[in-house]
Amino acid sequence: MTAQANRSVEERMRAIEDRLEIYNIIASHPPSADTGGSEHISAGWVEDGVFDRGEDPTRGRAAIAEQVLSPGHQAAIAGGLAHFTGLPHVAISGDTAVVTSYLQIVVPQTQGDAVEVPNHGSSKGFRVHRMTANRWELVRTPQGWKIKRRTLRQLDGSEPARKILRQAIAR
Amino acid sequence: MTAQANRSVEERMRAIEDRLEIYNIIASHPPSADTGGSEHISAGWVEDGVFDRGEDPTRGRAAIAEQVLSPGHQAAIAGGLAHFTGLPHVAISGDTAVVTSYLQIVVPQTQGDAVEVPNHGSSKGFRVHRMTANRWELVRTPQGWKIKRRTLRQLDGSEPARKILRQAIAR
Amino acid sequence: MTAQANRSVEERMRAIEDRLEIYNIIASHPPSADTGGSEHISAGWVEDGVFDRGEDPTRGRAAIAEQVLSPGHQAAIAGGLAHFTGLPHVAISGDTAVVTSYLQIVVPQTQGDAVEVPNHGSSKGFRVHRMTANRWELVRTPQGWKIKRRTLRQLDGSEPARKILRQAIAR
Question: Which positions in chain A touch C27 (Cβ < 8 Å)?
Answer without folding.
Answer: 86-90, 100
